[in-house]
């Protein structure tokens, strides 16, 4: 089985290239070309597949709105709506250790009800939350980890692209899956907040060093707090209200949110034509960074499929002949490993058709199994070498002093919480089946 | 930490202004075209939402047009993203290497840029027949009788983007090699 | 000695969908069986479920040899294979899937004009795929055509034209967005067929199912890369032709069985089934613009013999005993 060996070799080379510092998207395209050429012994074919995937991989309404979510985040940031929001949060949570980190988690939980993709959350909150958390003395590592980590709530709390894909593949009700995601989403948010409190209390050096020189927070009155809360409340009301009363879809929420943020920025007189242009150009740079990675990731996972990697690992799992918990353990491990090398929708396309029938044979509820799968898949957003959640934060932040490795390091506590919640959900299926 | 804002502010301002050199200007113009398309897409989607929700008059094809537009946007902006080094990567190893040996760091940068030249030429070459097909056979997307748009502009954008990206990478190969041999750090 | 042949077989959709199920459960076994007493063996490399390419690439994937055998959705290929889409522009023509599959298969085999689309795209045609007739799933009861006026109906692509004259507002979307769109009120229903809509559980949010009989549709078929096919020994080529025939037969049976079972289950889960009265259906049909005529003229303008194909299709249906709701002509 020479294909498998080629595939495995290319996974190893990918890890090496990423670590060595090759632009990740370009490295993935290159390896896909080499891999397909070697596997099919046809270099023309390899080129044609690259050309095809170049547009087909992102030619989707869902991906089209990524720049608009990025734009929304930049507008919220430039119009100081984000700054004001975090000043309010800082004031309200000033007695709580790690209060701003918790505010970021909460903001992501609310925003999760608006967007169906985690990249959108990361794109929106990087510019809003990271500078503000650092302003109040949080370490860069923790600030970026917090944004990347809590962005995964976007695909656990409905609506969720991953749950939709799983629902279609496993033939279960998307509506029931959405309901099933709510409690785990809230548990996850609570888990993140608890972890932040624990770390801020017992490992302050990691979160908010006491020694950090912090700008004194502004004096707040009830009036100033109210004034600072109005814009963000309006924006949330517009987007959440419009979405859940049927004026627009989660895909369209990006455009409406960006437009709303634009109006707010104009009303607050924080925007002139020059500044708006600057923001639009920046939106382009950030979006290209993310979208080109999606193209490259799609090519790479196609190459791995050609190599037969997913199929042979699935055969291996089936051949192990495990009990239900053994199966779940190996399955989750497999998803986590895949999460290191391919993007989240590809993982679902690869594993669900194989795993769902096995899960059914073990009498697992497919809704329960779906939530387990999606959480395990989401861990992959935060794990190196290929972690699109961390990449999105990096692309949006555009600060040379905060490297990708810092973001991945910042994600570690969040991954730990995700695995703990995952274990809890495996043990207590009721958490996912409460509303069903 | 206000300096974080100010640094990226300065970088943003620079990127928003048209550069002086002809090559930079060409990439900047392509990038600007893509930028305008992002704004246009926002207007298009919001118009569809308003038209559908309040006037029973949705815009035809917004989803399809947006999904094609996004490809055009990415490829128009790719060359600039490469030129101004905005491609996502892990630079921990490179930074350490450059601190120890600037020459080695620059040489490695040149190799990586060379990979870029190669892959974009591969995609360019394989897209060329797609473009000629689309042009000669009047390929379209959309629904006949409702609305249709030609697909050749999308293929053309990919071609232009790949050519620009290959050139931008080539410039970086040259700069990396020059610095590697001259021994001057970036 | 044994000769092992590597064949990649792939699809943009998972095997939970009948169109793909039949590739794995009918085509592959039939090919294997046909080769049983020969010296040839196929080593299948399966890539179902969109792991190799997406639904927008089904034609290119086979054409370029990314897969050797693939499901090709001509419904997504309005530009490159327009003639194959004749059924979508002749709504209300027939609810007899077996007849439609027969007619389309014969036309593809016997009309050089239809054959050319596959040959030009570097493919060999093996098997046929169609859907059962389209009906309505809505959040409100539909008793008259008037009930649709100003209602927002998820009807992406060509299906938007089927609403012409009803006063309904077509809303964009895809099978995967219908549920959320209808639940939140972005749309108030959709047109679909039981075996397609059941997996996404739209009946949970749009419980009024109205049988309208908008007609069966030809979705596409199984294509094989021409170079791959030509390289094969005639014995193996014949085996693949047999596999294609087995695909068509098994798929049509499966679709009809699943359709009935799915409809029963939706009703059991609380969906309210009714039939649009014949007179109302006729009003809907009569109110439609000249969809087929416009389509034929547009394509004739692009050098495609659409008039001939349209006439052959309608004649084929009538010869098979169908009475189309409207005598579409160009
Ligand atoms: Na969500
Ligand atoms: Na990962």
From TrEMBL, chain A:
The TRAP C4-dicarboxylate transport system permease DctM subunit domain covers 12-431
State the annotated membrane topology for this chain. Answer: Multi-pass membrane protein
Cellular compartments annotated: Cell inner membrane
Any keyword Cell membrane? Answer: yes
* Major localization class: membrane
InterPro entries the UniProt entry points to: DctM, TRAP_DctM
Residue ranges of the TM segments: 7-34, 54-78, 99-122, 142-165, 177-200, 247-267, 279-300, 320-340, 347-364, 370-395, 407-435
Swiss-Prot/TrEMBL keywords: Cell inner membrane, Cell membrane, Membrane, Transmembrane, Transmembrane helix, Transport
Task: Quote the subunit structure annotation.
Answer: The complex comprises the extracytoplasmic solute receptor protein and the two transmembrane proteins.
Provide the family line.
Belongs to the TRAP transporter large permease family.
The record's NCBIfam families line, in alphabetical order, gives: dctM (TIGR00786)
Q: What does this protein do?
A: Part of the tripartite ATP-independent periplasmic (TRAP) transport system.
The name of this protein is TRAP transporter large permease protein
Per the UniProt entry, what species is this protein from, by scientific name? Answer: Falsiroseomonas frigidaquae
TrEMBL record, chain B:
| Keyword field | Cell inner membrane, Cell membrane, Membrane, Transmembrane, Transmembrane helix, Transport
Where in the numbering of this chain does the Tripartite ATP-independent periplasmic transporters DctQ component domain appear? 41-177
Where in the cell is the protein located? Cell inner membrane; Cell membrane
Protein's UniProt keywords contain Membrane: yes
Q: Decide whether keyword Protein biosynthesis is in the record.
A: no
Q: Which family is it part of?
A: Belongs to the TRAP transporter small permease family.
For this entry, the protein name equals TRAP transporter small permease protein
Q: Which organism is it from?
A: Falsiroseomonas frigidaquae
């Amino acid at each position: 089985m020479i294909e498998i060996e080629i595939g495995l070799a290319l996974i190893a080379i990918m890890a090496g290239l990423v670590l060595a510092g090759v632009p990740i998207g370009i490295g993935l395209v290159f390896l896909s070309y080499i891999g397909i050429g070697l596997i099919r012994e046809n270099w023309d074919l390899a080129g044609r597949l690259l050309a095809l995937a170049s547009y087909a991989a992102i030619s989707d309404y869902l991906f089209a709105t990524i720049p608009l979510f990025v734009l929304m985040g930049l507008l919220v940031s430039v119009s100081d709506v984000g700054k004001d929001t975090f000043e309010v949060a800082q004031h309200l949570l000033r007695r709580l250790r790690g209060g701003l980190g918790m505010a970021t988690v909460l903001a992501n939980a609310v925003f999760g009800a608006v967007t169906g993709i985690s990249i959108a959350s990361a794109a929106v909150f990087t510019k809003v939350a990271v500078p503000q958390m650092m302003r109040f003395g949080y370490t860069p590592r923790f600030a970026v980890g917090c944004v990347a980590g809590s962005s995964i709530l976007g695909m656990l709390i409905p609506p969720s692209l991953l749950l939709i894909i799983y629902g279609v593949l496993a033939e279960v009700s998307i509506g029931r899956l959405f309901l099933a995601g709510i409690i785990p989403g809230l548990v996850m948010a609570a888990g993140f907040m608890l972890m932040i409190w624990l770390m801020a209390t017992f490992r302050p050096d990691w979160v908010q060093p006491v020694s950090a020189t912090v700008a004194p927070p502004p004096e707040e009155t009830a009036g100033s707090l109210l004034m600072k809360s109005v814009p963000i409340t309006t924006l949330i009301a517009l987007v959440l209200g419009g979405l859940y009363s049927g004026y627009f879809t989660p895909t369209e929420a990006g455009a409406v949110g960006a437009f709303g943020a634009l109006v707010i920025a104009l009303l607050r007189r924080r925007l002139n034509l020059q500044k708006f242009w600057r923001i639009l150009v920046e939106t382009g740079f950030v979006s290209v960074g993310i979208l080109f990675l999606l193209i490259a990731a799609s090519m790479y996972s196609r190459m791995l499929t050609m190599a037969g990697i997913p199929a042979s690992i699935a055969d291996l799992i089936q051949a192990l002949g495990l009990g239900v918990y053994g199966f779940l353990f190996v399955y989750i491990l497999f998803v986590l490993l895949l999460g290191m090398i391919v993007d989240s929708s590809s993982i679902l396309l690869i594993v669900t058709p194989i795993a769902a029938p096995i899960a059914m044979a073990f009498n697992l509820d497919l809704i329960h199994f779906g939530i387990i799968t999606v959480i395990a898949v989401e861990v992959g957003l935060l794990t190196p070498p290929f972690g699109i959640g961390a990449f999105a934060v990096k692309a949006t932040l555009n600060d040379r002093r905060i490297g990708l490795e810092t973001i991945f390091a910042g994600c570690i506590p969040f991954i730990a919480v995700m695995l703990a919640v995952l274990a809890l959900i495996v043990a207590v299926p009721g958490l996912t089946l409460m509303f069903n | 930490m206000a300096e974080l804002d100010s640094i990226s502010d300065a970088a943003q301002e620079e990127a928003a202004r048209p550069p002086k050199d002809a090559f930079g200007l060409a990439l900047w113009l392509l990038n600007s075209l893509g930028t305008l398309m992002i704004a246009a897409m926002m207007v298009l989607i919001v118009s569809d939402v308003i038209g559908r929700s309040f006037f029973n008059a949705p815009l035809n094809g917004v989803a399809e047009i947006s999904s094609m537009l996004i490809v055009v946007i990415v490829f128009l902006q790719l060359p600039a993203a490469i030129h101004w080094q905005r491609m996502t990567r892990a630079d921990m190893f490179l930074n350490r290497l450059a601190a120890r040996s600037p020459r080695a760091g620059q040489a490695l940068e040149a190799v990586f840029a060379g990979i870029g030249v190669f892959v974009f030429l591969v995609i360019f070459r394989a897209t060329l027949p797609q473009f000629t097909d689309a042009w000669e056979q009047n390929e379209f997307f959309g629904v006949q009788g409702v609305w249709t748009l030609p697909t050749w502009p999308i293929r053309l954008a990919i071609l232009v983007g790949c050519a620009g990206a290959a050139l931008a990478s080539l410039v970086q190969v040259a700069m990396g090699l020059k610095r590697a041999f001259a021994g001057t750090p970036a | 000695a044994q000769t092992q042949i590597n064949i990649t077989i792939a699809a943009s959709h998972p095997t939970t969908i009948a169109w793909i199920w039949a590739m794995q459960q009918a085509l592959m076994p039939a090919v294997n069986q046909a080769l049983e007493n020969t010296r040839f063996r196929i080593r299948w490399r399966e890539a179902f479920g969109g792991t190799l390419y997406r639904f927008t690439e089904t034609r290119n994937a086979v054409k370029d040899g990314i897969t050797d055998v693939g499901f090709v959705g001509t419904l997504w290929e309005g530009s490159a294979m327009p003639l194959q889409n004749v059924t979508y522009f002749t709504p209300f023509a027939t609810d007899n899937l077996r007849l439609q599959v027969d007619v389309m298969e014969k036309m593809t085999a016997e009309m050089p004009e239809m054959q050319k689309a596959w040959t030009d795209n570097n493919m060999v045609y093996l098997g046929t795929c169609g859907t059962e007739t389209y009906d309505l799933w809505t959040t409100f009861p539909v008793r008259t055509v008037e009930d649709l006026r100003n209602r927002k109906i998820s009807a992406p692509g060509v299906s938007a034209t089927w609403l012409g004259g009803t006063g309904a507002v077509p809303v964009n979307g895809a099978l995967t967005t219908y549920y959320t769109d209808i639940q939140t009120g972005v749309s108030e229903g959709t047109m679909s067929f039981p075996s397609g809509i059941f997996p996404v559980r739209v009946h949970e949010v749009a419980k009024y199912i109205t049988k309208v009989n908008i007609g069966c549709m030809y979705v596409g078929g199984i294509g094989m890369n021409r170079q791959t096919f030509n390289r094969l020994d005639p014995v193996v080529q014949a085996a693949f032709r047999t596999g294609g025939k087995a695909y068509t037969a098994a798929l049509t049976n499966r679709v009809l069985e699943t359709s009935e079972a799915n409809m029963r289950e939706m009703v059991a889960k609380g969906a309210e089934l009714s039939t649009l009265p014949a007179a109302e259906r006729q009003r809907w049909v009569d109110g439609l613009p000249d969809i087929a005529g416009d389509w034929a003229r547009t394509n004739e303008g692009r050098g495609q013999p659409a008039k001939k194909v349209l006439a052959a299709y309608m004649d084929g249906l009538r010869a098979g005993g169908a009475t189309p709701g409207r005598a579409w002509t160009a």
